[in-house]
Amino acid sequence: MKKIFLILCLGLFGMTVCPLYAAGDSAESLYQKGIHFFKKDNFVSAIDCFSRALVFNPEDQKIQSYLLLSGQKLVRQEEEQKYATLDNLQNMVDKAQDFLKVRKQQMEDALRKLKAAYSQSLKENPASLLRACRGVDIMFEVSLGRDEDSQKIKDYLHSLCGSLHDSVQSGLALDVQDMHRVMGYIAFCNSEWGLAVEEWEKALSLAPTDERLKFLLSRARDNQAQAQKIVKMAQLMASAEVKYRQGKAKAAVLLLKELLGLSPTHQEALRLMEKTQEKLQQGIRDKAVAEYKSLAKKHMQQDQWLEAAQNWLGLLKIDPLHEEALLALEKIQKNLAADKKRTVQSKEQSASFVSARQSKKAQHHYTLGILDYADGHLKNAVKHFEKSLTYDPHNHFTRRALDRVRREMGMTP
């Protein structure tokens, strides 16, 4: 609304700065020029014309309405252009993301093959395996804390390095259990939790009573579950963002609810949820506007002006600046005024017709009453005078004639 007000102010300001129109322009000619620009969606020129027309006729509601509508149209036009630009940019971003996704998958496949080759070389060369074990040992010694759980991991790795060293020095065949233990440690050090679980499960199947290995395996499983949770949340967030951009707000809300079930304080999810719910509410409002509009037009086609007005007013409660509804209500107001005028005229004509007919019947019975009185038929005269008064209750002549006959008959008036 502030933006529309600013546009209108600039239109009025432009009248003093840019005298583009002839001195002979009138309010009507400027209004017609404004309508011409309005129909061609040139709302800037339309605002200029309507603003100038108001100088000649500041109280003209028609010009005021079109000036306001032109401001609204200009704002919406700018917003549509902005969204069109954003859509083009989003398409470019989506294509770039698809390309990066393919390249990332190719790099992951190559890295997986390289790691497999490295693991195989370690298994085939005890000296290389011992060297890797020592590397992990020093890394854990530096990076892990001094708490009880960390100390268990370090102590177990120290003993494993000692066992491998003895095997290499004596030339004995490498213990399969030790090989799986070391490979598990290397994977654990590289945050490859799935591989660590796999190797330590193999080692534990060969040494089911190894309590320290059970502890390490539980840690690897916990880390694996946490990593899977993080991946799952990232996937849900990415899918929700895609659904939001596609305008599928309900689907986005479902994905975000699942994500927030995993992490209730996820800030990005909370922000997107707020935006998505606003978009969902806007969709509900748009649907309600369309429903009100459809019903209003249907009633207008059937000349049901009051029903149509109720639906247009319902629409305006949702969108107070809806130009079609405002113009339609103005038309309905004129039609209702015309209908009311026709109704009044019809009633007046009907009342005039009824009055003339009743007067004629009153006169007929009054005449019959006079004739019956002249013939001495007083009872019949009373009946006709009373009947005449039912059609014309305020006729003084009939009333006085009836009173006289009643007095002659000894009846109470």
Could you explain how this protein is built, in words?
This protein is mostly helical and 413 residues long. Among the domains are: 2-87, no CATH class; 121-225, no CATH class; 323-408, Serine Threonine Protein Phosphatase 5, Tetratricopeptide repeat (Alpha Horseshoe), CATH 1.25.40. Helix content is 85%, strand content 0%. It contains 15 helices and no strands. The chain has helices at residues 2-17, 27-39, 43-56, 61-124, 126-143, 148-170, 176-189, 193-206, 211-245, 249-262, 267-301, 305-318, 323-374, 378-391, 396-408. α1 (2-17) packs across α3 (43-56), α10 runs antiparallel to α11 (267-301) and α13 packs antiparallel against α14. The longest helix has 64 residues, at 61-124. The radius of gyration is 47 Å and the shape is elongated.
Q: Mind sketching the topology for me?
A:
Elements: H1 2-17, H2 27-39, H3 43-56, H4 61-124, H5 126-143, H6 148-170, H7 176-189, H8 193-206, H9 211-245, H10 249-262, H11 267-301, H12 305-318, H13 323-374, H14 378-391, H15 396-408
Helix pairs in contact: 1-3, 1-4, 2-3, 3-4, 4-5, 5-6, 5-7, 6-7, 7-8, 8-9, 9-10, 9-11, 10-11, 11-12, 12-13, 13-14, 14-15
